[in-house]
Automatic annotation (TrEMBL):
<feature type="signal peptide">
    <location>
        <begin position="1"/>
        <end position="27"/>
    </location>
</feature>
<feature type="domain" description="Galactose oxidase-like Early set">
    <location>
        <begin position="401"/>
        <end position="507"/>
    </location>
</feature>
<dbReference type="InterPro" id="IPR009880">
    <property type="entry name" value="Glyoxal_oxidase_N"/>
</dbReference>
<protein>
    <recommendedName>
        <fullName>Galactose oxidase-like Early set domain-containing protein</fullName>
    </recommendedName>
</protein>
<dbReference type="InterPro" id="IPR013783">
    <property type="entry name" value="Ig-like_fold"/>
</dbReference>
<feature type="region of interest" description="Disordered">
    <location>
        <begin position="47"/>
        <end position="71"/>
    </location>
</feature>
<dbReference type="InterPro" id="IPR037293">
    <property type="entry name" value="Gal_Oxidase_central_sf"/>
</dbReference>
<dbReference type="InterPro" id="IPR015202">
    <property type="entry name" value="GO-like_E_set"/>
</dbReference>
<dbReference type="InterPro" id="IPR014756">
    <property type="entry name" value="Ig_E-set"/>
</dbReference>
<feature type="domain" description="Glyoxal oxidase N-terminal">
    <location>
        <begin position="75"/>
        <end position="392"/>
    </location>
</feature>
<dbReference type="InterPro" id="IPR011043">
    <property type="entry name" value="Gal_Oxase/kelch_b-propeller"/>
</dbReference>
<dbReference type="Pfam" id="PF09118">
    <property type="entry name" value="GO-like_E_set"/>
</dbReference>
<keyword id="KW-0732">Signal</keyword>
<dbReference type="Pfam" id="PF07250">
    <property type="entry name" value="Glyoxal_oxid_N"/>
</dbReference>
Length: 508
């Protein structure tokens, strides 16, 4: 499973070019460790088309040079853990590139794999593990990625993208979430639809979300909230989408042309995709936010972090960093879902990311509002990386943290399969209602969008003590690819809200 871990960390740092080390422990920043002492040879970073080498492959302890032939765009993992990156810049807009997870694998590129140029687009995984790519600059359409080595020629026009293109665009990096019925929720600017990837027909149009623009450069952030599963699932499995923050419709124009930095939006909107009468339910955040990152945590809570309080995405178009993370608890009533956490001291605005790690912490990096590396400006290019520890990693809760016995837990499961997760936990009595088994899909994160981020709360049929501190949880795998596309997930055992270290598991 180590090879899959390496591939997943490639996902993190295809979008992270800035490397340094800092930590936030229990929500509190520690002293920066300074500029990274890791050096890269001249030519190892692809900053222009004359340079043919890039260093973007990262594990926790080592770097290895890889060599994409052009600037990569977005990405996702195949069923077997291969990274597929589509689109890009500097000659890479029509390219599909593949990076397998062996120790010495390198990029394999197909420069005409895409029918349209894709830059600032979204890549989503379908129920069979294949990919759809939606939108991008001057690409008001979508297409499907064919098997490796084949060039796609077929485009599907998107009325949603055509009808939501403002003067400032406001519909780049559209939010695309796979619903539990196998259809795709697509959100652009302030409108959304449910699209069938089988027939390419719009099944449903959702109500317009008022208040402003939510996609780049308006740049709200979004999450598919944790999907609750049972031993016997209902015919319709609920799925909710959350969208937080954003900017006024003309915010980019006002910041870019008039140098007026308007307050970002301060609301979160939530909608139930499978409701008979879906409607947006709005609640206020403690402060406005644009360019934030939303991270679904392994215990089902949601972290909202990074971003700015004024302006929009773009070079130098935001001010007033929002340093205070928010913890959002989906199953609490409206008005009680938000909790402010300890603030960071590092601005994280344009080109920043946040993503959950196997140890339950959150990797935070990036932020460069400048067209180039600049250190003599109000918001210098940021080279530090942080690890944020959510409240569940408070040392006082250490005795409640399970440990998965991975030698007795399967590495591969099938849909609907009942399987055992063995844990070590220093608790005398472990009741079924206090235990969760969750599966977290590794996302591709860039520009406030975490593509394919997905957390499944599995059905549990039994929990029993075996001996000493060892307990066995009997869980049921997701029912189909509509609910959980095939591939690798991080498996967590959670006790009273405290997650274990994640172990890789593959569903086929």
């Amino acid at each position: 499973m180590a090879k899959c871990t390496l591939t997943t960390l490639v996902l993190l740092l295809v979008v992270l070019i800035l490397i340094q080390e800092t930590h936030i422990v229990e929500g509190r920043p520690l002293k920066s460790l300074g500029i990274s002492s890791i050096s890269k040879k001249v030519g190892r970073s692809r900053l222009n088309t004359s340079s043919k080498v890039e260093t973007e492959d990262h594990s926790l302890d080592a770097f290895r040079p890889t060599k994409p032939g052009n600037s990569p765009g977005i990405g996702g993992l195949t069923i077997n853990g291969t990274l597929v990156s589509t689109g890009g810049f500097q000659g890479g807009a029509n390219t599909a590139r593949y990076l397998s997870s062996c120790d010495n694998c390198n990029w394999v590129e197909y420069p005409k794999a895409l029918a349209a140029q894709r830059w600032y687009s979204t890549q989503a995984t379908l129920p069979d593990g294949t990919f759809i790519v939606v939108g991008g600059r001057q690409a008001l359409n979508y297409e499907y990625i064919l098997p490796e080595g084949m060039d796609n020629k077929k485009l599907y026009d998107s009325h949603l993208l055509k009808e939501t293109t403002d003067r400032e665009e406001n519909n780049l990096y559209p939010f695309v979430w796979l619903n539990t019925d196998g259809n795709l929720f697509m959100f652009a600017n302030n409108r959304s639809i449910l699209l069938s990837p089988k027939t390419n027909k719009v099944i449903k149009e959702f109500p317009q979300l008022p208040g402003g623009a939510r996609n780049y450069p308006g740049s709200a952030s979004s999450a598919l909230l944790p999907i609750r599963l049972y031993v016997k699932n209902p015919p319709v499995i609920p799925a909710d989408v959350l969208i937080c923050g954003g900017a006024r419709q003309d915010g980019y124009f006002r910041a870019d042309r008039l140098k007026l930095f308007d307050a970002a939006l301060n609301d979160c909107a939530r909608i139930s995709l499978n409701s008979k009468r879906p409607a947006w339910k709005i609640e206020k955040m403690p402060a406005p936010r644009v360019m934030s990152d939303t991270v679904v945590l392994p215990n089902g809570e949601v972290l909202i972090i990074n971003g700015a309080k004024h302006g929009t995405s773009g070079w130098g178009l935001a001010k007033d960093p929002n340093f205070t993370p928010l913890l959002y608890t989906p199953n609490k009533p409206i008005g009680k879902r938000f909790k402010e956490l300890a603030a960071s001291a590092i601005p994280r605005m344009y080109h920043s990311i946040a993503i959950a790690l196997p140890d339950g912490k959150v990797l935070i990096g990036g932020s460069n509002t400048n067209d180039g590396y600049r250190y003599d400006v109000e918001y210098p290019t940021e080279l530090r990386i942080e690890k944020f520890s959510p409240p569940y990693l408070d040392p006082a809760l250490a005795n409640m943290r399970p440990k998965i016995v991975n030698t007795d837990t399967p590495k591969q499961i099938k849909y609907g399969q009942t399987f055992n997760v063995k844990i070590e936990l220093k608790q005398a009595n472990v009741a079924k209602e206090n235990v969760m088994v969750t599966m977290l899909a590794p996302p591709f994160t860039t520009h406030a969008v975490s593509m394919n981020m997905r957390l499944l709360l599995l059905g549990i049929s039994d929990v029993k003590k075996e001996h000493g501190d060892v307990h066995q949880i009997q869980a049921v795998a997701p029912p189909s690819g509509n609910v959980a596309p095939p591939g690798y997930y991080l498996l967590f055992a959670v006790y009273n809200g405290v997650p274990s270290f994640g172990e890789w598991i593959q569903i086929v």
